From TrEMBL:
Gene3D superfamilies, per database record: Nucleoside phosphorylase/phosphoribosyltransferase catalytic domain, Pyrimidine nucleoside phosphorylase-like, C-terminal domain, Transferase, Pyrimidine Nucleoside Phosphorylase, Chain C
Pfam families per record: Glycos_trans_3N, Glycos_transf_3, PYNP_C
Any single biological process term in GO: pyrimidine nucleoside metabolic process
Protein name: Pyrimidine-nucleoside phosphorylase
Species per Swiss-Prot/TrEMBL record: Peptoclostridium litorale DSM 5388
PROSITE patterns listed in its UniProt record: THYMID_PHOSPHORYLASE
C-alpha cells in the first residue's frame, strides 16, 4: 500500500477503505508518513469530504492510536460530558457535582484551555492545592468512593489527532465537519465512557458560528458515537453571548459556586440542569428528562450539590474552605468598570471579542507554553436585550495592569452593538440530536 495512491484516490473523489485509513493513521502517528503527504490528504478530504463510514473509521483509528482509558473498575454507567467550547463556559463545575450528588458516577477527563480562557483543569487549580494529575487507581477509587473525579487528560490520549490537528491548523484544513467531529470524538471514545452528552455551541463565541453548522456537527458526532457503540445525545446551545456573567478562571469558579448555591445566572443554571438531566437519563438513574430536572433541582436546593463540590476539592488535595469563603481566591490588582459611551438596547455582542478581551488580560493562553493568570477576567453586566444608558456599566474588568485594562476595555466597548429596538429573545437550547434524530426547539 502506498500513501501516494491513497492521496490520489481521495483527490479524485473515491471512498477510502478501512485498511487505507488505518495505514495512514498508523504511518503518520509513527512518523513513517511525512507532513507533506498527510497535508495533501487533509486538503483532498477538505474538498471532497468523507462519508459516514470513512469518518467513523478515521475516528476509531485515531482513538486507538494511543492510550484507551479502562473504566470497567468503576461501578455503574459512566457518562461523559463535553462542550465544544465558548466564552464563560463553566458548566462542568456545576454539572459534575450535581450529577454525582444525584447518584450517577462522574469520571471526567478534562483539558486545559487554549485561546479565550482556561479549561476546566485550569479553573480547578484556582483551589489552593488542587491536584489535577491522578493515577488510574486513584481515579477509579475516587469515583467509586465519592462518586466523582476530574483529572487532566493523559498525554498520550489520541496522539494521531494531536498531530493531525496541529497540521490542519497550519494548512487551512480545520473547517471540515468530518475532521472536526473525528477530532473531538476520538478523544471522547478513548476516554472510556459508556455514554456521552455533548454541548454543541452555536454563535459568535463558538467554533460553529451559526445554527446550521452546529446542527451538522452535532449530527456527525452523535452518528460517530452511536456507530462506536456509545449512547449519545447532543444539545445545541446558544453562544451569541457569554454564558452567565463571569469570564476568567477564578471568577468562573466563584460563579459556579454561586450557581450550586442557587444564586447563579439563570442561563447558566438552565443549561447545567438540562445537561445534567440528560446525563442522569443515559446513566439509567431517571426515566425521563423531567424526572432528571426535578432530581437535580432537589439536589441543588438541599445543598447536596455544593457539598459534593467540597468533597471533590478535598479528595484531590484542594482547600474546600474556598467553597464557603470565595474571598480566598486570588484577586486581581485592578478591578475597574467599563462604562458605556452610547445608549440603547444591547442588540448583539461579538462574543469572540469578549473572549479576546479576557485573553488580553491573561486569562487564556496564546499558545501551549503560555502562563495564565487565574485571578483576571471580567464580569459582563449587560447582556442581549438589556437597556443601556450612557455611563452604565457594561462590564467589570479584573486586571493585573492599567495598560491591560485599557486595551480590554476598548475591545469590550467595541463588542457591543446597541439599537433603538430591543432584539427578539434567542432560545438558550436550540435543539437536540440523539438516536431518534434531530429535534429543533
Amino acid at each position: 500500500m502506498r500513501m501516494y495512491d491513497i492521496i490520489q484516490k481521495k483527490r479524485d473523489g473515491g471512498e477510502l477503505t478501512k485498511e487505507e485509513i488505518s495505514f495512514f493513521v498508523k504511518g503518520y502517528t509513527n512518523g513513517e508518513i511525512p507532513d507533506y503527504q498527510a497535508s495533501a490528504l487533509m486538503m483532498a478530504i477538505y474538498f471532497n469530504k468523507m462519508n459516514y463510514n470513512e469518518t467513523l473509521e478515521l475516528t476509531m483509528e485515531m482513538a486507538k492510536s494511543g492510550d484507551n482509558m479502562d473504566l470497567s473498575g468503576i461501578e455503574g454507567v459512566k457518562v461523559d460530558k463535553h462542550s465544544t467550547g465558548g466564552v464563560g463556559d463553566k458548566t462542568t463545575l456545576v454539572v459534575a457535582p450535581l450529577v454525582a450528588a444525584a447518584g450517577a458516577p462522574v469520571a471526567k477527563m478534562s483539558g486545559r484551555g487554549l485561546g479565550h480562557t482556561g479549561g476546566t483543569i485550569d479553573k480547578l487549580e484556582a483551589f489552593d492545592g488542587f491536584n489535577v494529575g491522578m493515577s488510574m487507581e486513584k481515579f477509579t477509587s475516587s469515583v467509586n468512593g465519592i462518586g466523582i473525579a476530574i483529572s487532566a487528560q493523559t498525554g498520550n490520549l489520541a496522539p494521531a489527532d494531536k498531530k493531525l490537528y496541529a497540521l490542519r491548523d497550519v494548512t487551512a484544513t480545520v473547517e471540515n465537519i468530518s475532521l472536526i467531529a473525528g477530532s473531538i470524538m476520538s478523544k471522547k471514545l478513548a476516554s472510556g465512557a459508556d455514554a456521552i452528552v455533548l454541548d454543541v455551541k452555536s454563535g459568535s463565541g463558538a467554533f460553529m458560528k451559526d445554527d446550521k453548522g452546529a446542527f451538522e456537527l452535532a449530527q456527525e458526532m452523535v452518528s460517530i458515537g452511536l456507530g462506536a457503540g456509545r449512547d449519545m445525545v447532543a444539545l445545541i446551545t446558544d453562544m451569541d453571548q457569554p454564558l452567565g456573567k463571569a469570564v476568567g478562571n477564578s471568577l468562573e469558579v466563584i460563579e459556579a459556586i454561586d450557581t450550586l448555591n442557587g444564586n447563579g445566572p439563570k442561563d447558566l443554571e438552565d443549561i447545567c440542569l438540562h445537561l445534567g438531566a440528560h446525563m442522569l437519563l443515559l446513566s439509567k438513574k431517571v426515566g425521563t428528562i423531567d424526572e432528571g430536572l426535578q432530581r437535580l433541582r432537589g439536589v441543588m436546593e438541599s445543598g447536596e450539590g455544593i457539598e459534593k463540590l467540597k468533597e471533590l476539592v478535598k479528595n484531590q488535595g484542594g482547600d474546600p474552605s474556598y467553597v464557603d469563603d470565595t474571598s480566598k481566591f486570588k484577586k486581581a490588582d485592578i478591578v475597574k468598570e467599563v462604562l458605556s459611551e452610547q445608549e440603547g438596547y444591547v442588540y448583539s455582542i461579538k462574543t469572540d471579542e469578549i473572549g479576546r478581551a479576557s485573553l488580553v488580560l491573561g486569562a487564556g493562553r496564546e499558545n501551549k507554553e503560555s502562563e495564565i493568570d487565574l485571578s483576571v477576567g471580567l464580569i459582563v453586566e449587560k447582556k442581549r436585550g438589556d437597556y443601556v444608558r450612557k455611563g452604565d456599566v457594561l462590564a467589570v474588568v479584573h486586571s493585573s495592569s492599567a495598560e491591560k485594562f485599557e486595551e480590554a476595555s476598548r475591545i469590550i466597548r467595541a463588542a457591543y452593538s446597541l439599537s433603538e429596538v430591543r432584539p427578539a429573545d434567542e432560545k438558550l437550547i436550540k435543539g437536540i440530536v440523539d438516536k431518534d434524530g434531530t429535534r429543533h426547539i
